Amino acid sequence: MTPETMNSIDTLLASYAGGMLPAPAQMLVESHLQIKSANRQFVSGLEGLVGKALDDVEPRAVSNRNERLDAIFATPEPQIIKAAERADKVFPASLRNFIGFDADEVPWQSKLPGFREYDLGEVDGCHVNLYWIRPGRTIPGHTHEGSELTLVLDGAFTDITGRYGRGDISIADESVDHRPVAEEERPCICLAVIDGDLRLTGSIGQRLGDLLGT
Q1: pLDDT tens for residues 13-58?
Q2: Strand order in 126-133's β-sheet?
Q3: 8 A C-beta contact, residue 91 and residue 106
Q4: Which helix (H) or strand (E) holds 97?
Q5: How is 141-171 classified by DSSP, letter by letter?
Q6: Using an 8 Å Cβ cutoff, are 142 and 160 in contact?
Q7: More confident residue, 83 or 180
Q8: Mapped to the 3 state alphabet, what secondary structure does 12-77 carry?
Q9: What is the enclosing helix (H) or strand (E) of 205?
């Protein structure tokens, strides 16, 4: 996952269809598709192209064949998610399976006034976090040394790149310097997958005000 390859939703979905994303980014895209159906047909078409391309590849001997087959067959079958379940849950099935619980059970930790975090740590080379942001709260201005994928799970936020509501994915890299602001109607809950450090930007006064939530 690099800024060069993760600069658009279409590129992100193509990487997902090709199985090229780190595990947490793959889960984030799966969660997006479970919340919003608009991109499912596009992804299905991409997966068909990937399958056709594999058909055209000359077969080669596989090392550790039996061990690899055992690992494939040990993978749980995809769950069929009923519409009623999707309506009742804030977190989509892929995220719930990844962390083991839904939004009402998150052990949030307050990091700043009006800003809570659940840090899942490093997974497959990426840092994974859940965020809860108070309505109207501004996140301190920052840019990125890698790529940041943010999936909105509830509520909405806006920044210089646009508005992101439930199911939308924001993609940011070193070319984006933004101060996301949660909308006033309800708290904004997000899942973030980051493969590089963040760097605070803006004046000292702006940083102080954003940190204090004023």
Answers
A1: 888 888 889 999 999 999 999 998 777 777 765 655 544 444 455 6
A2: 109-112, 115-123, 126-133, 188-194, 148-154, 169-172
A3: no
A4: helix 93-99
A5: PEEESS-EEEEEEES-EEETTEEE-TT-EEE
A6: no
A7: 180
A8: HHHHHHCCCCCHHHHHHHHHHHHHCCCCHHHHHHHHHHHHHHHHCCCCCCCCCHHHHHHHHHCCCC
A9: helix 204-212
Expressed as residue numbers, the domain containing 110 is 1-214
Q: What is the pLDDT of residues 120-153, one digit of tens each?
A: 999 999 999 999 999 999 999 999 888 999 999 9
In this prediction the pTM is: 0.77
> Distance between CA atoms of 114 and 212, rounded to whole angstroms?
9
Task: Name the pairing type of β-strands 115-123 and 162-164.
Answer: unpaired
Q: Are 145 and 187 in contact (CB under 8 A)?
A: no
Instruction: Residue 66: give its domain's CATH number.
Output: 2.60.120.10
**Sign of dihedral through CA atoms 40, 46, 51, 52?**
positive
Q: Domain count of the chain?
A: 1
